[in-house]
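Appendix B, example 12.
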Amino acid sequence: MTFENILTEKENGIALITINRPAKLNALNKQTIAELHDAFKALDADADVKAIIVTGSGEKAFVAGADIAEFAHFDVKEGEHLAAQGQAMLFDFVQNLGTPVIAAVNGFALGGGLELAMACHFRVASDNAKMGLPEVSLGVIPGYGGTQRLPQLVGKGRAMEMIITAGMVSADDAKAWGLVNHVVPQAELLDFAKGIAAKIIKNSPIAIALAIKSVNAGFEDGVNGYITEIRSFGEAFGTEDFKEGTTAFMEKRKAAFPGK
């Protein structure tokens, strides 16, 4: 699969997606969102891929926001459609992907960039990273899930301050607030993310997908996360991974999960 705005590579069960629009600080436009959707979908369907890392090209930005020129002339209905389509195609899609996705935030993650990072299952950041949702400074609000995911991660008060001041936070503050899990020097970022991914891929991909589903359920309106967990727990008992995992434990050997 050939892309214009992103790069993909695979090695040892780990896939890397690099958003590659350095002249635009990797800003998200419609084409890039569509390409990211296609890449995530294809990698999720690839049995050889057990974890995905997404990052930005260069040393300045993960994603510095949306491509404002694309929607500056939109009316009310067009704006609503833009948000709905983007959430469904990319941000909600990534959040609910069965394959775990790590955001390696290598610089500015602003607006849609931070929203993409927050849609990933967790985040690691370089020490020069800056994160924020500056949309109100443009007379609009975050439209790709930012007003929902940010409070879930950092709490209502801090999220409200970030959103309505349009300010940025440092990588260290982001870590202290729970927005990112780890902060490392930029030169070490990808290797660090790959190290976490290497731990993930030792485990059952079926169980991981069920765990992601269960955790997400707790944040969905009208969904009982405990019931989802009970059902997913039971579902795991019918998998080959469960049989292999329990057998390997009893035989005191490392499990070789078939992913079924």
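The chain has ten helices and ten strands. Residues 76-95 form the longest helix (20 residues).
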